[in-house]
Amino acid sequence: MTAVYTESQAKIRPGYKIDYFNQMNTIRVAVTDDHPMVASGIAQLLRADPRFIIQALYNNGTELRNGLLRELPDVLLLDMHFPDTTGKELMKDIAINHPSLKVLVLSSVDNVYDIKEMMQQGCYGYVLKSARLDILVQAIETVFNGEQFLQPEIKELLLQNALGARTKVTTYKLTQREQTILELLSRGKTNNEMAAELFLSHRTIENHRLSLYQKLGVHNTGELVRVALEQGLIK
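Structure (tokenized):
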């Protein structure tokens, strides 16, 4: 028999279904975030609105994959980073196994490269965790109705990128850490090798790499090194 938890219990039992009656005009939302307190906080904010039912909370990729096999929400709020996988990998799985699921990315990552990739993989929208609650509510309702939603700041980022309005490298101010990682990448170092050498996590290295991609307007390491050489950022 499947265990059913009360609303208060569900806050501390991530990945378990919350057994609510889905009334008319309500939207069943599942929240994913690798930080349980963040997931619970988002759920609590939405739970105060009668339009939403929090179906489940997930804190890692395994919980999410298993939960989606049991029951699909109307809208899935998907983070980009988890201890066992990434939002990109989860989105690939969802596109194959649950193509009808409406996915709204809710992340702190505002990298143009990531945003484009997630939208191309089938996400319905992208919202930053720094957004106001009314923006998140609008986003959920929009994707629930089958339409795409991009936070205004995200639209501006994509527009500037599409128009080729890149900041010239000479006006950049790369952080010291970014400069170090850029030089290590030019030597052919992998993320794992850099993480070990700099005593940083794999995720931190990847975030710095993606930040460099965005600043230099490139999409892969080869382009990054080429542009960095052309602009004199590395020798």
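The mean pLDDT is 84. Strands lie at 27-32, 52-58, 75-78, 102-107, 125-128, 149-150.
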